[in-house]
Design brief:
The chain is an alpha+beta fold. The chain has one domain: 2-Layer Sandwich (Alpha-Beta Plaits). About 15% of the residues lie in helices and about 30% in strands. It has helices at about 15-20, 45-50, and strands at about 1-5, 25, 35, 55-60, 65. The strands form two sheets. The protein has a three-stranded antiparallel β-sheet, with no helix packed on it. Strand 2 (about 25) and strand 3 form a beta hairpin.
């Protein structure tokens, strides 16, 4: 599983942090999202789904390769 964040696109709306069921994300001192607890991420995709600025890419690893 990989979770990638494009902080440049983030406007700090807090939607992703609010919807993350495992508290993986948080906002830094500049108001941009960052991954604070990557080990807790289950690749549910809620951050990617809810982000209005398309800051996230969630990929799940499968036996045949990577699935997006």
């Amino acid at each position: 599983m990989t979770l990638e964040v494009n902080k440049i696109w983030c406007k700090g709306c807090y939607i992703c942090v609010h919807f993350c069921p495992h508290q993986v994300l948080d906002l830094d001192e500049m108001g941009k999202v960052y991954i604070k607890n990557a080990k807790q991420c289950t690749a549910c995709g809620l951050c990617e789904l809810r982000c209005p600025d398309f800051c996230f890419t969630v990929s799940k690893e499968t036996q045949g390769g990577t699935e997006k």
